Amino acid sequence: MDGSLLIAGGALALSAAGVAETWWHQRNLSRIPIRIHVNGTRGKSSVTRLIAAGLRAGGIRTCAKTTGTVPRMIFPDGSEAAVFRPSRANIMEQRRIVRAAVKLEVKALVVECMALQPQLQSLSELRLIQSTHGVITNARADHLDVMGPDVIGVAQALSGTVPIGGTIYTAEQRNEVRGVIAQAAEDRGSRLVPILDDSVADVTWDDLATFSHIEHPDNVALALRICTDLGIDRRTALRGMWQADADPGVMRLYRLTEPEREMVFVNGFAANDPESTGHSWNTLVDRYERVERRIALFNCRHDRTDRSRQLAEACVDWRPADHYVLSGTGTEAFARRAIQMGISRDRLTCAERRPASEIVNLLQGQSGRSSLVVGMGNIAGPGMDLLDFFQNAQSPPDASAATLSFQEAA
């Protein structure tokens, strides 16, 4: 047989297989009436879990899939398992997730966007998920080499997951960034639902205190609005969210208690761009306003000096810390820029290349009767060692216990 005929026949067979696979995928999508595609710079995994938990609590049979610290499939009973990947991550695995959800006979599927390249984000929505409800948690100046050159470029890239003829939710507060999402919603015939400051303010500290981890009010407000729009009352949805497992990379709180002294350490290393880090710091300082001392711990890396300088420039506009401790390597870049920005030298302690045990001693030396320490910057090196230290020294308490303790200490 002529070689060209063999090639043509093979191409025809592949084409037919592709058409069949697309047909089956469309059929599977049609069997899941609620499809929620979650995108954004920060909080995607948490919001995915919160929405799924709220829907489950309201009696809607739901599956979810996150791609955060560890990719996970969350089943209708709330149990979960790691997503098997035979090789590197590929957005086509979303087809397997949809297929699995159909076999489980779910009514809702909540999927975290796993694409970074703008064209792949759009492909994920238009071909793979075709969501009824979209989410863009926020748009921050991160991954600018891929989605930049600025936050507007990031918003444009994230808007690739706006559904066609559906509803898109966002907790992004800046008008110019939200305007980009609004334009995409108009182009695709979707309704934009902004979660503004007044809605975020409706999430009380009592609501947040019942979580076993540190949860952002923006994320909770966003998830609650979606659950409410899908017929789940607020209290039921919240109860489900409180009971759900958190993502492995979520901020957690650890407490060291000694006679006459208490230190709470918060793992905030995951949010490493200046805007997200500042948002986390301000939220925690507001939440624990009664502590005597607030200590900002920045774990630096000599190969990430740009990030260190950016954080040093940004932190002067955050809620003030009583002291700043710099660990890791390349701390001089942070210290020099922080001093230039107006932070006094006596409020800075450099712990260059110090082990975790020495850093803890430094932190305790800066503590009063009650102190809040937030670890930021990078998890590598001393950051991971510090996290291991606090995990071994004290299991994560529930957040409400920490809140009560601080009130008593005040």
From TrEMBL:
The family database entries (SUPFAM superfamilies) matched by this protein are listed as: MurD-like peptide ligases, catalytic domain (SSF53623)
What GO molecular functions are on record for this protein? Answer: acid-amino acid ligase activity; ATP binding
Gene Ontology terms: cellular component: membrane
InterPro entries on file: Capsule_biosynth_CapB, Mur-like_cat_sf, Mur_ligase_cen, MurCDEF_pg_biosynth
GO terms for biological process, alphabetical: capsule polysaccharide biosynthetic process
Pfam families xrefs: Mur_ligase_M
Q: Where is the Mur ligase central domain?
A: 38-147
Reading the lineage from the top rank, the first entry is: Bacteria
Name of the protein in its database record: Poly-gamma-glutamate synthase PgsB
Native species: Roseiconus nitratireducens
Give the gene symbol.
pgsB
